[in-house]
What we know:
It is a single chain. By secondary structure, the protein is α/β, with parallel strands linked by helices. The protein folds into 2 domains: about 1-180, P-loop containing nucleotide triphosphate hydrolases (Rossmann fold, 3-Layer(aba) Sandwich); about 210-290, CobW-like, C-terminal domain (Hypothetical Protein Yjia, Chain: A,domain 2). The protein contains 9 helices and 13 strands. The chain has helices at about 15-25, 40-45, 65-80, 95-105, 125-130, 135-145, 160-170, 220-230, 285-290, and strands at about 1-10, 30-35, 55-60, 85-90, 115, 120, 150, 175-180, 210-215, 240-250, 250-260, 260-265, 275-280. The strands form 2 sheets. Strands 1, 2, 3, 4, 5, 6, 7 and 8 form an 8-stranded parallel β-sheet that branches. β2 (about 30-35), α2 and β3 (about 55-60) form a beta-alpha-beta unit. α3 (about 65-80) crosses α4 (about 95-105). It starts with a strand and ends in a 5-residue tail after the last helix. The relative contact order is 0.16. The model has no long low-confidence stretch (mean pLDDT about 80).
Amino acid sequence: MKIKIISGFLGAGKTTCIKNVLKKASGNMAVIVNEFGDVGIDAEAISKGDVIDMVELPSGCICCTLANDLVAAVKEIKSKYNPERLIIEPSGLAVPSGILEVLEPISKEYGLEIEAIIGIVDADSFLSNVHSGLFGDFYTDQLANSDIILINKSDLVNENTIKLIEEELRKYNSHAILLNTINCETELPDFIREHGTEFLHLHFDHDFDSLAITSEREYSPELMKELMEEMKAGKYGNIYRAKGIYRTTGGRYSKMDYVQGNYTLEDFPETADSKLIFIGKDFNRQALQVKLGECN
Length: 296
């Protein structure tokens, strides 16, 4: 069973990349999604495509606190479905080296082949993030262990910025294939990592916080757009990432995607409950809850 690890910081485009891979897949595929926070949203978005099995590992780090859960999920998928390929999407705050370390002891017994690790960076925020020093070894680990790095959302920056990003990436990784993408659209090279290949393992200790909301409420387009603009202006503090699938007015459903000031609001097929998650540092959780009508 081939395993493809798709990693990237919060909002870089991991879920979009997985959906692209699924669209082009010729064989059976399964997916494991690990999210930061108590509400799983990516799994619901991905499951609208062709997947023979979907396992969701929310609220925890796939390479430490959820290591045993990851191994159990991989074993079950292999034994029950034996798909041609398993895609693993770690949360935006997990590192690929941890996954490699967790899977190494069972690789031979279960016939696991690790494909090229895909790392995704957001062209619009990568330089400011990496220069801020806030994310420490996260970038070092992700970039140093990636075989292919997608410089995603390249349409949001100019050629000079792309050049600066490439120069910065080369400080961490001299061998990776660098691809500029929009919506992660590209033809990914197909190859298997050599067994026993060394990798850099740095544990990333984060102090991020999250607010997860599950509700039967409807949120109007006007309310959600106003909320996005207020987050962009910093009204609620440091919110780096927000996403949600929710009921809106008129019996419709919508999907919200917010990444460090950039956001989209678009139609979504359907969802049982409204599910929203906000990720950041020292942000005003109560003010957000009041805005969304979750506080009396």
